[in-house]
Amino acid sequence: MKRTFYITTAIDYPNSYPHIGHAYEKVVADALARWKRLLGFDVFFLTGTDEHGQKLATAAEEKKLTPQEFVDEMARHFIQFADKLDISYDDFIRTSQHRHKVVATEIFSRVHKKGDIYKGFYEGHYCMPCETFYTEKDLVVGHCPKCKREVKWLKEDAYFFAMSKYKQRILEHIEKNITFIWPESRRNEILSRLQGEELRDLCVSRSGITWGIPLPIDKSHVIYVWFDALVNYISAIDYPGEKFVRYWPAHHVIGKDILWFHAVIWPAILLAAGIPVPRQIYVHGFINDEAGEKMSKSKGNVVDPIQLMDKYSADVLRYYLLRSTSAGQDGNFSEKDLVARNNTELANDLGNLLLRVCTLITKNWGSVPKAKPVQLFDAAELVASMDEAMNRYEFNVALEKLWEAIHLVNKHLNETEPWKKSKDEQAVILYTAADALRIISILAEPFIPQAAAALRKTLGVSKVTVKDCVWGKTKAKTTLGPQEILFHKREFAAARVFPLALVVGKITDVSPHPNADKLYLLKVDIGRSIQLVAGLKPYYSAAQLLGRIIIVVSNLKPAMLRGVESQGMLLAADDGKHVIPLTCGAPPGSKVELDTFVVGDAQITYDEFAKIKLTVKDGHVLFDQQELHVHRKPVTVSGVDEAKATIR
Ligand code: MSP
């Protein structure tokens, strides 16, 4: 029987689009999953989305969708994202799925039957807009620490989980199992918190919220979103069925902000339900911006992993993330460094090596010559040292080992100068290089799967298992090809700014302007309601505009137009005959993006706006040849003469 390896990522909140932190975590887990498969393990790799809770319900409300409609749409983005990143997940769990709700309810009932759920009340300082309880010490000068608004003292019926009962067992488990929480610094953090603080029981219900899983014992409450979410790790493997028996316990890959939930709350729930605790919790650091600052939308320093993959490739992003971060540490994302690594390590060291070997062999021999290889490196030792690093989540170390081997092959070709050698000597040199590349193609697979597959195709290698990482397995007479350029060299250009903040809006009301014949007053929903003055009256009736999805400039200085304030501007294409508003198949409130531009949000004047030239091609709206879109849904306009159209 094969040894099993069950690995999971945290399940992401799909209240917004996937970010670089989500990419990093998935790539870390994927590299290890692929590595274990290479080693012959029976791997099960789980990822997914965490779809309940107030945060999601609020995000759905802002988009005027039901929570289910909203999460259905957003989960699609997360699945596409995982696929684009080449994440080799075996299952994608969504907590709004029936299969999950059944198991979450079952676990809650089990813990209740055990006598570990009791009714009490929850009291504290409550912030209405944030729907969060705070203790006295959380407050900032008596106000909500998050939104700074006033808080109210509130007391609410609630159900509690007797988590405190399990403190000792959890503590002992962590003490006895050095690698249960990894790396060690994180283990120490939890140990000292557990030793130093009283472990309080956990409130595991919320009332007044309907988007969640009802408590089996009281349908007027829903299960607390974290209790619900953690259960995904077993609902996805059909607890208590055969798959659960085969794969549990898991290795959880998570970020440092959610360690307490995984290291204490989750083991407590499992112990109460009579289920073994996880095998390991690996805690990775955060990806911050170039200056080491946390990325956030308000700071405008967020990098979009989808744009990076479009610009470079999934492999380049994967390689960069794995190579430039150390286990458990934060990493600073720098596109400049990504380009530098792409050019030297990927394009030069590996890509050029393949081209060189292919050219030398094809030109001089037609196909791989027969010879006994020189063992440039100890293949078994390479695998063992990479394995040791991988098991410690030191992907950068594993990659350094692999690149040492790549350097040795480059050095071998440079120093032996095969083109100056006799036929026999040349055969040995070239066979050695091809054989080394074959071994490298196998070991590179977990990190850069697409390039590794291209490499194997060129070298005529079909099997991918670590057992093939021995010298001399390349078949003589193999014709090499097609000669692929594995990685293109890139130039780094600092991001340019697109100065228009465009947002999708829906017209909710149309009325005539009191002082102008050609103008309408429009009420537009852009996530909030704004008023626009638009010169569309000669072209459209009110009924034709009502409900229409339009594109609004949201950073234009508000202007008084004939005595009425316009808080933005609707964009339309005008070819002299027709005036047609731009549109986009995305929900109101969504922001328009461009691939290689950063969208500026500083306020601009009408004169500045008038200098910006947008064009139309095949119905799509472009700026500097680049498509305006909302997460791949293009901004469009049809029915105008594109050559003559100006967008205003
Ligand atoms: N839904 C919860 C997890 C429930 S698991 C039962 C959640 N979701 S999240 O979308 O906010 O975060 C998902 C994962 O991404 C977490 O492990 C989190 O630590 C990680 N990251 C979020 N931002 C990050 C960075 N900037 N860098 C690296 N990872 C970070 O928490």
Question: How far do the termini sit from each other?
Answer: 68 Å
**Rg, nearest Å:** 29 Å
Tell me the name of the CATH class of the domain at 496-647: Mainly Beta
Order of strands, main sheet, comes to 3-2-1-12-13-7
Q: Give the CATH architecture of the domain at 496-647.
A: Beta Barrel
State mean pLDDT (0 to 100 scale).
94
* CATH fold topology of the domain at 496-647: OB fold (Dihydrolipoamide Acetyltransferase, E2P)
Bound molecules: 5'-O-[(L-methionyl)-sulphamoyl]adenosine
- Give the overall shape: flat
Instruction: Give the amount of beta strand, in percent.
Output: 15-25%
Characterize the main sheet: 6 strands, parallel
Q: Could you provide a short overview of the structure?
A:
The radius of gyration is 29 Å and the shape is flat. Among the domains are: 334-468, Isoleucyl-tRNA Synthetase, Domain 1 (Orthogonal Bundle); 496-647, OB fold (Dihydrolipoamide Acetyltransferase, E2P) (Beta Barrel). 37% of the residues lie in helices and 21% in strands.
What features would you describe in this structure?
The structure is a single chain. The protein is an alpha+beta fold and 648 residues long. The chain is flat, with a radius of gyration of 29 Å. The model has no long low-confidence stretch (mean pLDDT 94). The chain binds 5'-O-[(L-methionyl)-sulphamoyl]adenosine. 5'-O-[(L-methionyl)-sulphamoyl]adenosine is lined by residues 10-13, 21-22, 24-25, 50, 229-230, 232, 254-255, 257-258, 286-287, 295. 5'-O-[(L-methionyl)-sulphamoyl]adenosine (MSP) binds next to α1, α7 and β12.
